[in-house]
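re: that complex we talked abt at group meeting.

here r the seqs, copy pasted straight from the sheet so there may be weird spacing, ignore it
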Amino acid sequence: MAIVYQEEERTFTLHTRQTTYQMKIDNFGFLLHLYYGSRTAGNMDYLLTYYDRGFSGNPYDAGNDRTYSLDVLPLEYSTMGIGDYRNSALVVRNHDESESCDLRYAGYSIRQGKYELPGLPAVHASLQDAQTLEIMLEDRVSKVQVRLLYGVLEEADIITRSAQIINGGTDNIVVEKAASACLDFAGGAYDLISFYGRHAMERNYQRIRIAHGSHVIGSRRGTSSHQYNPAVMIAGQDTTENHGECYGMVFVYSGNFMCEAEQDQYNQTRVTMGLQNELFHYPLAPGEMFTVPETILCYSDRGFGDLSVKFHCCIREHICRGKYKDSARPVLVNSWEAAYFDFDGETILQLAKDAAELGMNMVVMDDGWFGKRVDDNSGLGDWQVNEEKLGCTLGELIRKVNDTGVKFGIWIEPEMVSEDSDLYRAHPDWALQIPGRKSVRGRNQLVLDFSRTEVRDHIYGQICSVLDQGNIEYVKWDMNRSITEVYSSGSSQGKVAYDYVLGVYDFLEKLTTAYPDILIEGCSGGGGRFDAGMLYYTPQIWCSDNTDAADRLRIQYGTSFFYPMSVIGAHVSAVPNHQTGRNISLHTRGITAMTGAFGYELSLAKLSGEEREEIKGQIRRYKEHEELIRTGNYYRLSNPFQDAYAAWMHISKDKRQILMQVVMLENHGNMTVNYVRMKELLPDLIYEETGSGRCYYGSALMNAGLPMPLELGEYPAYQFYFSARV
Ligand code: GLA
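got the structure back, here u go
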């Protein structure tokens, strides 16, 4: 049993293969957090300590006991007005404007299988693989109820949390702040690792001490954002890739979020993960319920490498869905960096012919095929094929592309509207805007109000009529600006940001149900909405608009802490690189892109004969290793922000096949040799490196490493494939 309720002790214990999570209902009915970490046994309420603490108030029911204070005790779901002055997981404004919420235990249930969340993405699992715990809490005065949801995936070492806020009273209330997870650590000192960035430079690694005060990351942009990813690690201060304890929190949501990490007056740590409280005031009428998006939790006592492998499995197996969850992705060529807006049907067809000859599986027609979309100033919202530009119907083009032997994919940006579009001229009120104010433009476009059903339905109809014109096997779903005008004529303002995201999910759910065979790749100016919420609908996401190999190594490094290789869209592009001007060799660009869902993004017609041969070889090699890259365990072997090289490896589950990839980042006169140590091999197995035919013991490769060749030039790269000798 993964979930146990001990009646006498009033403890709930969640066990996974290697971890334990424990809570207790105390004498006053408060739900206290006891422990989360390596697997333990028994009742751990001895960890709770009680002292008379000045200026830490005592609940009325504690009578004269001044040692009992919720300002000090570890809580499972913190609220306002009960004498806890640390960060709140939940703030509710009652009908009388007070913000007190005194949640006491009101019941529980345990069931086989994993809970689902209405309208929201969430971890899914088969009935055997998961259990659900629901704990009901209630404020006896306001009748606000909170249903805490816990999903336990025992084998996967995953615990998920969500919360549902129910207005059980007779007056309206407003949810002002809501997190799905609150983790209290009574002892210890921790670091917070988060991933910050900007357009074309996403998910840089940042490690800071969790110090007194609050450190807050999040998004107010309407999407999860390029600037902060909704996923963090909390780690012991000596934790590394290979050693030490660490926790991961991944928010399964694609909109505004907030993660707060706080060290309190007694050096205790609290980290909450949930919705952004700015631009959010969610009204609940009597009987209504609000669901907070899910947070995935995982713990490892074996460093970040092990934690990442667990999150990769969870996202690959229990977030991604559909036909492509477990299958090879097509090697594609995308028209964007090949031609930008400057293409016609012939250009696409030529791309397809070249793609077929080089061994690629698909051509993707990116932005520019619809409406009056001559550049990025017009046309969004008019999803009618520009047959004049293509020189034929879409159906004809797709047939010709398919005749060359490759599949056809297309780009869309359904959430947007250009002011210069027929849609905007007909329905200016469909864009998110505030009456009386001029809207902020982003890429000269406005955002459609996806919180409104009629807006979504109209766009959905248009998109379907495009998809029905031929054999479209891939869609790139883009979203190219941040939201500014959080205002809808259709609803209460505090709901708009959340309802918008649920609108996007609703659209995607309908689309994936109607077209289950289409592979959808998410995108938001590259990786501006790279989160577990989107991955529930789109099993891969374009990682970044930056295709420069040297930068991409770092972006993919940051991305790899939580997200598996199968979901990371990675392409080889032309040099000089369009984002940085660097001239990195085709070989190195190939190795860099082979870390994810591999493809190309350049004019194939301009390639030399030599480059064509090299690309054929790359595609052959990628296809040889594709399964290992997609399903194997991935380990980082260096930190490209600090080390002289970027190195990583993919190892099969049985540990008999390994692909190690290395890109040298620094070269100096009379250069020193770098030794790359591998991980998780079987020490007594002999591995043969196929390139050289040399054999090594696993223990040697792990403990001494492999010396990297010294080669002149910039960013030389190496790929080593090892297989275990029988
Ligand atoms: C975004 C995407 C690019 C490309 C363009 C098209 O920037 O990230 O890959 O699709 O839009 O406008």
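couple things i noticed - The first strand starts at residue 3 and ends at 6. The longest helix spans residues 609-631.
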